[in-house]
Write a structure and sequence with these properties.
Elements: H1 2-8, H2 10-36, H3 48-66, H4 87-91, E1 96-102, E2 109-110, H5 117-126, E3 130-137, E4 140-148, E5 151-158, H6 170-177, E6 184-191, H7 205-239, H8 241-255, H9 260-282, H10 289-309, H11 312-315, H12 318-328, H13 334-361, H14 367-408, H15 424-478, H16 485-515, E7 522-526, H17 527-537, H18 539-545, E8 548-553, E9 559-563, H19 564-581, E10 587-595, E11 598-606, H20 637-647, E12 651-657, E13 660-668, E14 686-689, H21 706-709
Length: 713
């Protein structure tokens, strides 16, 4: 499921979905604002900025003509003009061509070389440079020709009724309406948009109007492209509805953690923001569109929350959470409930005191005195709580120490706390637990002692008649009995009597080892030599078993502190088991290595049967690898070996790997032992194969007290 979720990448899908919706929303909002502001026009000559620019030009033309001394023409027959009177017209440069005439005189002003109105009109009409031509006389628009993307059209009417007239000054307007301008003729021509220039330091109003319109058209085209891309992305994300549903599920889970009151307040602000945004869009104020996007998505998330969570949308509120919190303070343990309630009461009290202290600061001249009193009271309550908390922590520390004493078995007396303390019941329960454990341990010790005594007594009682049986069997073995098969019966009796003797002896030793009442004679000894000695002593059994024993030593000497007799018994038991249960024709490996200050002796062999037991079960008493019990043995060999190794301060572990049986003995290396003698460099693993008794080194041919160590597994 996690791989499938990663493959679908729901958050990537939702990110594209949110981006597409947001950008589409921005495009639509900007388009609506531009439409309401009459920004979207196919020709820049229909924009109010252009009409204002043309109106300003006409106003300056009339002002120029009305302000001239018409009875006093210049030397060349034209009116006398001052530079300041043509400044605004000069700002337009060659974007316009104008011709102003008054009465029967030559032109008052013109930016062309023509001194005749007919020649002027003929030139601007036939040149193809101008798309907007206006002919005025007094208050009349004789002709207005305009070429747009939809074609050309002509217009006639009164100047005072046109859009250009609103920029005329009241003084000029009164002169025109009074008839003073009836003798004035104004001819104006404006170039097409692609021929306009801004050569007058960005002072051409007509060029600025065209430039503004052009930039808005570019924005409109870009908005259309972004809107188209957003629609495509939106359709793709809708197709990926499963990934989108996964993202919605995560959003709903997060929204479900918020209180209903918080969502209600934020939703109210979001709706108010939406209303304000709608008003701003109507008035073409687009800056707030990016602030409205969070409001929109918040409402979207709330809608998803209502659809998916349903009733839980309303039930997860502050009141319900407060009730749930108060219930969480309830506890079946009285001291825990008291501690929780104290903390909550402290927090609420301190909050109320802080609020009251702030309020008192603004009440009268002595309000700060009461505020200080409240602050002092709050500090006192906080110190009182800290003192109580420290006392509880000290009591809890005593309980932890008492538990550690119980764990280590060093408890001398029960833990008693004052009855008014919160942890007094817990201390009493721990004391009762310790008393119960002590009684159980005493009972267990008494039971083990009785068991050891019983086994010792039984073993002792069995030894006397068993010794007599063995002695009489020996006497019978020395006689030549008739009939002949009676001698065979005696041999069988001798074998079974010896087996019973060994069983009694093993049972006696394992009981003493488990009760740790056995005497230990610890001394420093060479464990390598002891292994070699054990192998050499059991050479005859190796030949009978039909297996080959190989030893591998990392050094010629390795000293440990142990009881030699007990450790010899361990090696003898492990090797005896290996010989008894190994597959014929295989090898038994005995290795001795030192690892991090520990001597490790390993016995490995391949079993001749299927090992159905576990490593833990085989070291228990009376457990045998041969479940059918067709071979001799008491089932106590590994149990005795494990007990003896532990009495020597080591460990015995069993590892099973298919048919491979491995017994590993670990003993700490003696710190006072001499340095180990390294083996030959050319043969890093010291290996010996024992095929005959002569292989035993002379150094370890010692008196081993064979009779005291002899046993069977």
């Amino acid at each position: 499921m996690a791989t499938k979720l990663k493959k679908r990448k729901p958050w990537v899908t939702f990110s594209f979905f949110a981006a597409a919706v947001s950008m589409l929303f921005v495009c639509i909002s900007v388009f609506i604002g531009m439409r309401n502001n009459n920004t979207i026009v196919l020709d820049f000559k229909d924009k109010w900025e252009y009409k204002n620019a043309v109106g300003n030009v006409l106003y300056n033309c009339y002002s120029l003509a009305l302000d001239q001394p018409l009875e006093k023409p210049g030397e060349d027959g034209t009116a006398v003009l001052y530079p300041s009177q043509t400044k605004y017209l000069d700002n337009e440069g060659d974007n316009i061509a104008y011709y102003i005439a008054a009465g029967n005189y030559l032109p008052v002003a013109t930016n062309t070389d023509f001194r005749d109105s007919d020649a002027f009109l003929n030139e601007i009409t036939n040149s193809g440079l101008y798309e907007h031509i206006i002919l005025l006389k007094g208050d009349q628009i004789l002709q207005e020709t305009k070429i747009t993307l939809l074609g050309g059209f002509a217009h006639e009417g009164k100047l005072s009724d046109s859009d250009y007239y609103r920029l005329f000054s009241p003084y000029t307007s009164r002169l025109i309406e009074s008839g003073r301008a009836d003798q004035i003729s104004v001819y104006l021509a404006v170039k097409s948009g692609d021929r306009l220039s801004n050569s007058k330091s960005n002072l051409s109003a007509i060029y600025n109007a065209y430039s503004w319109w052009y930039s808005q058209m570019v924005v409109l085209v870009l908005l259309a492209g972004v809107a188209a891309a957003s629609i495509i992305i939106l359709l793709v994300t809708i197709i990926k509805h499963k990934s989108l549903s996964m993202a919605n599920a995560v959003i709903v889970r997060l929204m479900g953690k918020l209180w209903f009151e918080v969502k209600l307040v934020l939703t109210g602000f979001a709706l108010l923001g939406g209303i304000y945004f709608a008003d701003c869009v109507f008035w073409a104020d687009w800056d707030v569109v990016f602030l409205f996007i969070p409001c929109f998505w918040w409402c979207w998330f709330v809608l998803l929350d209502i659809i998916y969570n349903k009733k839980r949308f309303f039930t997860n509120n502050i009141v319900y959470s407060l009730i749930k919190f108060m219930r969480s303070l309830e506890n079946k343990h009285d001291f825990l409930e008291r501690m929780k309630r104290r903390f909550v009461v402290l927090i609420v009290t301190e909050f109320v005191m802080v609020v009251l202290s702030v309020i008192l600061l603004f009440i009268g001249r002595i309000g700060w005195i009461f505020s200080l009193l409240w602050i002092a009271l709050g500090i006192y309550l906080l110190l009182r709580y800290m003192k109580e908390y420290n006392r509880n922590m000290d009591e809890f520390g005593l309980i932890i120490d008492y538990v550690e004493q119980i764990k280590s078995g060093t408890v001398t007396e029960p833990l008693i706390l004052p009855q008014e303390d919160d942890f007094a019941p817990l201390a009493a329960n721990l004391s009762d637990i310790h008393s119960g454990i002590s009684l159980a341990v005493e009972e267990q010790v008494r039971s083990e002692k009785m068991k050891v005594e019983l086994i010792t007594n039984v073993s002792h009682d069995l030894k006397t008649p068993l010794t007599s049986i063995i002695n009489y069997v020996d006497l019978l073995s020395a006689e030549d009995l008739k009939p002949d098969f009676a001698n065979d019966y005696v041999k069988i009796l001798a074998q079974k009597a010896n087996r019973l003797k060994n069983l009694v002896q093993d049972l006696f030793e394992v009981s003493k080892a488990n009760s740790r009442t056995i005497d230990m004679n610890l001394e420093q000894l060479d464990i390598v030599a002891l292994v070699e000695q054990t192998v050499a002593e059991m050479d005859e059994r190796v030949d009978i078993a039909g297996v080959e024993v190989k030893t591998q030593f990392s050094s010629q000497q390795m000293f440990v502190v142990a009881d030699g007799k007990k450790l010899h018994r361990v090696f003898e038991n492990l090797l005896g088991n290996a010989l008894k249960y190994s597959l014929a024709g295989t090898r038994v490996y005995i290795t001795v290595h030192q690892k991090q200050g520990v001597a490790e002796v390993t016995f490995k062999n391949v079993a001749s049967y299927e090992m159905t037991f576990t490593a833990e079960d085989i070291v228990e008493r009376f457990q045998r690898g041969d479940a059918s019990r067709t071979t001799e043995g008491s089932g106590l060999g590994l149990a005795i070996a494990k007990s003896f190794v532990e009495l020597n301060g080591g460990t015995l572990s069993i590892e099973l790997d298919g048919d491979l049986f491995k017994a590993i003995i670990r003993l700490p290396v003696s710190t006072n032992s001499p340095a180990p003698i390294p083996v030959d460099v050319e043969d890093p693993v010291h290996e010996k194969i024992y095929d005959e008794p002569s292989a035993l080194p002379d150094a370890i041919e010692q008196n081993t007290q064979q009779d005291s160590l002899q046993t069977t597994c």
